[in-house]
Every structure is written in C-alpha cells, then in structure tokens.
Design a protein that fits this description.
3 helices; 36 residues; elongated
C-alpha cells in the first residue's frame, strides 16, 4: 500500500492528475467514472 501511495503522491506532485482529468473530460470518461 505504501508503494501505491508513493505513486499517487507522484501523480499529484508532477501534475499528471490535472492532465488526466483534462483527457478524461475530452473523451467524456467523466460520466464513465460516475458509473463506476
């Protein structure tokens, strides 16, 4: 679990999360996440 936390922290720190959200919004995956 610790390794996973490090990966998540890395995503936040590098700003990948914002890029990921932007891509998901463009592809309309946002509604797909709600289904999950």
């Amino acid at each position: 679990a610790r390794g996973k936390e490090s990966i998540v922290a890395g995503f936040y720190h590098e700003g990948y999360l914002d890029k990921l959200l932007t891509l998901m919004r463009r592809r309309g995956v946002h509604s797909g996440l709600v289904v999950k």
